[in-house]
Amino acid sequence: xxxxxxxxxxxxxxxxxxxxxxxxxxxxxxxxxxxxxxxxxxxxxxxxxxxxxxxxxxxxxxxxxxxxxxxxxxxxxxxxxxxxxxxxxxxxxxxxxxxxxxxxxxxxxxxxxxxxxxxxxxxxxxxxxxxxxxxxxxxxxxxxxxxxxxxxxxxxxxxxxxxxxxxxxxxxxxxxxx
Length: 178
Prior knowledge:
- By secondary structure, the protein is α/β, with parallel strands linked by helices.
- The chain contains eight helices and eight strands; from the N terminus they run βαβαβαβααβααβββα.
- It has a six-stranded parallel sheet with strand order 3-2-1-4-5-6, sandwiched between helices. Strands 7-8 form a two-stranded antiparallel sheet.
- The chain is globular, with a radius of gyration of 15 Å.
């Protein structure tokens, strides 16, 4: 299966290494799009090494002149996974804002390509009515959410907002094409 993994700037971005490693070891091709904020938490080199593929960050980098990369990646994907997903990327997608590589590829994905979003953020952010409205809006369009868990968060708060367990995420993605 061709999996497109979007990694955003949540502290949980370090878990993208484990997600990438497990999916690759299970025989899947994983292409990673790392946002600029995500790259401040985990390096492109880490994800490139684990995926054995180039990590995409710059929408305007000319890789193959005859290919529009955000379109070709979207067409290639059997499934899109954004893990971790910040409030920012959820809001961008909900309102059709395509101003970086990840949001552009998500907008270009075919309507029958499943898009899974695994939020990870502070409880107050996750429970904010605006974020919840954006999640409901995306659900109404067919986007699928992998619920965050309740845990001690990086900020020291206890509450819902921690990225779902890596095992859960991998199991859901692998089961999405059965």
